[in-house]
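Quick check before the chapter quiz. The format below is the same one you will see on the exam, so make sure you can read both the input and the output lines.
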Amino acid sequence: MFKNVDAYLLFNPSNRFYFTKFDASNGCVILTKKEKIFLTDFRYIDAAKKAMPDWNIIQIGGNYLGIIVEELKRLGAKNIGIEENTLSIDMFNKIETAIKDGGTKMKLVHSFVDIAAVRAIKTEEEIGKMAAAQIIAQKAYSKVTSNIKVGMSEREIAAELLYEMQLLGASGASFDIIVAFGENSALPHHKTGDRRLEKNDIILIDMGAKLNGYCSDMTRTFSIGDVSAKLKEIHALVLDAQNMCLKNIRAGMTGHEADIIAREYFKANGYEKEFGHSLGHGIGIDVHESTRVAATAQDILKPNMVITVEPGLYIDGIGGVRIEDMIVVQEDGQALNLTNMDKNL
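Here is the expected output.
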């Protein structure tokens, strides 16, 4: 950071939380090499001062962009880094207008890549928080799945998973929980609905807990009955593909090189078209973060990046299988797996 930027101006809630460790629905962060400034409204000002004693906390009101520009002028900032990937056109225009009205010649610099690169490398504290979130997800999964019965709905299972995670201390789910029965499991991002479990249905559950601001993500596919030979075949293939990836993913590989391990294995077994999504993604404060692990991804995997490994095969009208773990990329040796949950069908 700060290579071509004098100050970063951050509005994105996840970026604000990353740098401040303070959760607020409104505010912005100004970062320079020497100063850390958090601007927020009356609702959060006292709590922010207590939580962030080493920050300059400024209360904002109606003309908050004018206040921001005055702070940037005070700092002598010329090149202002912004989050072009999440900043709306309307907000971008308002910032430019405020700069112009402030009589300055500041330049807005696209800086998403800089910020994403910093967030992609996790600290030991961050990894610990994600591991704790994963433990909560696993405990909830174990309790709920042990009580699944024929006749229950997808929505009912998802509600129980969320309830159990919150009882265990999670602030909520990392994302909308996916519960897919039978043919619905062939839809990778199925919208959990009212489909009821029938005897010998395959069951796909994609879930994660959010704890202390950090996410977990896990998928398991199983049955409480006896599924078809085709589903048994693709479950075995997906499990083999994932095991190959877990054993071989290393720092220094590209996202493409990691993805191709599973993709080539499926192709060799006649299932090239049934694997239509990427192998995985970065995860942290957001369930989907920078570091793509996909067929076209040239992102370099680096030590302490946390990514998912989630190969899947999907057959329309029959069902699908996805198995997902969350791993920490290691410089030497096999990746550290933060997921410890049965993968049997």
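If your answer matched, good. The radius of gyration is 23 Å.
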